[in-house]
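Recall that a protein's primary structure is simply its ordered list of amino acids. Everything else, from secondary elements to tertiary packing, is in principle encoded there. The following example makes that idea concrete.
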Amino acid sequence: MKYLGYLFLFSFLFWASCMPYEENTLTNIQLDYSDSILKRLIDHQDHRNTDSLANYLKSPIPTYRYVACQALASSKDKDGLEHLYPLLKDPVDDVRASAIYAVGQIGDSTSVEPLLEAFDRLDSLRMFTQSNGMILEAVGKCGNKDHLSMMTSIKTYGEKDTLLLLGQTRGIYRFGLRGISNNSGTKLMMDYAKNDKFPHEVRLMASHYLYRTKNIELDSTVADLCQQVKEEPNHNIRMALVTGIAKSKQDIALETLKEVFKKEEDYRVKINILRAMSFFEYDTTSSTLVFDALKDKNPMVAYTAADYFYHNGISEDGRTYRNIAREIKDDWRLKYRLYAAANKNLSVYYTIAKTNMTEELVALFNQSNNRYEKAAILDALSEFEWNYPKIRQLGLYNEDPVLKTAGANGLVKILSSKNFRKTFGENAPSDARRIKRYLVEALMSKDAGAITVAASAVQNSKLDFKGFFSHKGFAFMDTVLMNIPLPLEIETYKEVEKAIDYLKGNPIKDTKPVYNHPIEWELVENLNSRVRGIIQTNKGKIVLEFFHQSAPASVANFIRLAKDGYFDGKTIHRVVPNFVIQGGCSRGDGYGSAPFTIRSEFSGQHYYNDEGYLGMASAGNDTESTQWFITHSPTPHLDGNYTIFGKVREGMDIVHNSQMGDVIEKVVIKF
């Protein structure tokens, strides 16, 4: 009966939404970073001083309460919950919403009751519509399946109740990301997604629920969704829905994907269609579309087609993948993904063909001067288990950190191969021990990338490193851990620490870096909405605006690095089609940074709901340093886990055309 009461509480807003609107005059948030008290508050956030922040939650000044809530949202410290709960009913809606967001970020199941009790059912003046909507989202981050049932049964929100609908869809989406879903929620999200009378943001979240939520059931109404895909004018919604309909595995969905692909002009939608083809059987009908896509004018579409064959290909087509790869001259990513697909999918009994491929790949490796191309070749070589000595020699023993990391990845891939025992027969145990010895070499190499990859493998119970170390012991790993420089290589440190805990049978720790890098307040004080960052690449300029009010430390850090020339000459080291481009790595393999870390900054002011958001890469909360990424399209699954500190204002075409290895010539800041 308690949940029926809450259902009435939420539904009451349908009546309240019909009441006359009055301007909200209570909010008075002034983020002036020349304010010494506000700076002190942010410094407490930077130090993660929960007790000190709690004092600001009692301040009579709304701005300080608001920012203190943001600080606790960033730290995700459970000790802050009891201090936040009173602010769930703060008289200022922005403060109330900030407190709700913080409670949701912390994600503790005990927070559901306080959140539901804070829902203002008597908000006839619509003063707390924002916070009421955010309660629904927050419940999705910490509630259980009963709370989901309660939320999905609400059908009273109208098309104009944007913030409430958005809170509901974000909440159901958050449940979905946590593996909690039900049929009524799926049906509701389908209804929102296919009805263009609902606000765009609501439809986008509903579409991403269908895209990201696993194990959902799409009934016969998927036909309506297929029709919506054909008619949908918005590419962001379309690219999410194509994956949603594919989950039905119905013939009508397959035919819709093929029809849409033929006329689709947005490369990102085509990429998602190609990925969605993995929900269907590999046959002539489906594979023909993908083979044709290998010739697409957009290199990311072509690469995604090759990636489809890598993951879903068959042995009978292995020679075809290889033959196509041989003919490709000007796209090394496509070429070596197809080689990898051939090597992976050809049966282990095609030893001669695989051996010939190895000779070709080694020759191409020796001819190349491109470190990323060489890494892709090592990846292709690692699909033939017998190549592990070559992977060690060409990769793990290479002085280039990109290739050293690629070598470690290749060895782990071989050791993890489902065909390992079939390939090596009765010698499989001795070959496995030899590869593990090579990975021990990686652990002792003092190379951040190689150590991180090897330490991650040690934690894989299927690889039985516990059994391997039972003879010789693993005490040396304590020395490895001690020799890892902090905070420079915090990601590496965390992985080795986890590996040691796993081997000892201890609970896995998650060490966070201690405060080590103060905010440069002089920079922050000079920031305003007109400041721009210009990333000059060999492809062209990307112009950024910064969100200095919600992420002052991250913005100041980026600007200082840019002014010091840190980014100049580095590369775009990671490109994932229709996801992100990433830069700022000192090594070029994703494991490099500067000898400091900064704190994560989450506020609820910005969401990854569009293309072009600038985010901080991290290996967990508070591990950010120099690496950043820019999104190709909406990525709401990143919300609340990766700091958003800016957005592209000009040059999205450059972002979309960037490839791994492109050079960041310089980054200039315009005040």
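Residues 351-367 form the longest helix (17 residues). Confidence is low (pLDDT under 50) at residues 11-26.
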